[in-house]
Amino acid sequence: MTLAAAPAQAQQYNTSERAYVPVIRGFNVDEVRRITPGVELNFDVYGTPGGRVYLQIAGARRGLQLTETAPGQYEGTYTVGTRDRIAANSAVTANLRVGNQVTTGVLSESLVRGYGRHDVPGRGDLADMPRVERFDVAPESDLRPGNELNFHLHGTPGAKVEMAISGTRGVFFMPEVRPGDYEGSYVIRRGDHLMPTTPVTATMRLNGRVATATLNKPLLMAGAAPLTSDARVVRYCTNCATVEAINVIEVNGEGNYIGTLGGAVVGGLLGSQVGGGSGRTAAEVAGALGGAYAGRNIERNNARQTRHFEVVIRFANGGTQTVQYANDPGLRVGEKVKVNDGVLTRDN
Predict the structure, then answer these.
(1) Quick one: CATH architecture of 3-107?
(2) Positions of CATH 2.60.40.10 in the chain
(3) What span, in angstroms and rounded, lies between the C-alpha atoms of 41 and 28?
(4) What's the predicted TM-score (pTM) here?
(5) Helix, strand, or coil (residue 337)
């Protein structure tokens, strides 16, 4: 299945918000034969881990929140109801939110098998046909889960490029990083069935026209020995990880109990100097309450907005961890790091 990407599909740094925009790398739906009440529509979204994904289907009476079943993989099922008015070509919108940042994409494939795409028709001119001039991959030393395959495609600029890898689920995207240059990566997951010569197909779409190319290069590095169980133990790094996302969390100061209790104590002392007997007790209570209110306002007025940084890292085994920093850690998404006692260092 394919996705008509929102304007900011590549991982970008928002300078005004000092935060990274999340990425949707893939969007998949299991097409059905027909849409009738009781039919289940199964969706998969692949992107930045640690977020929340919401789907909105045109004609549906309710939305759908997907569940993160693996790092960066979100799944969900929508059961068609009797009051839904979902059609084969109903638009499906996915919103991926990480922290305060959101990215959006629209499914361009129909929900019904064989119905076709939502592409805008082209003029039919051969000059409009997109061209794939080169499709390449940086081969890995082995194809174990957690390893990353990096692809590069060069061709007609301004197109949408998606990639399908045999033995994996879903279709993945190659954002245009420079005019005519498209790059994308795929992290091997558990359950994938990859071989050195596994077919990989790239599809370029522009103005309703389509061009395809098949990778003619092996995924495994030349001369690399087949992975054995012993080699897996030796090569595995338990504290090595990759930076998946960097989120900036803004915290508005709401005061704390120090200001409230401090004001209450002062108010109570002042109240104890007024009246006697029951009148004195009432004065103490009133003074304490008034002091608490004043202390609360003082604390609230002195509160400042603060920020802290959350760095989401992904380990080779697919697990994730979030490390918090009071200041900008100076890391970038995609960097290799090592974690020791909760401290991240670059893996050079």
Answers:
(1) Sandwich (2.60)
(2) 126-214
(3) 11
(4) 0.42
(5) strand
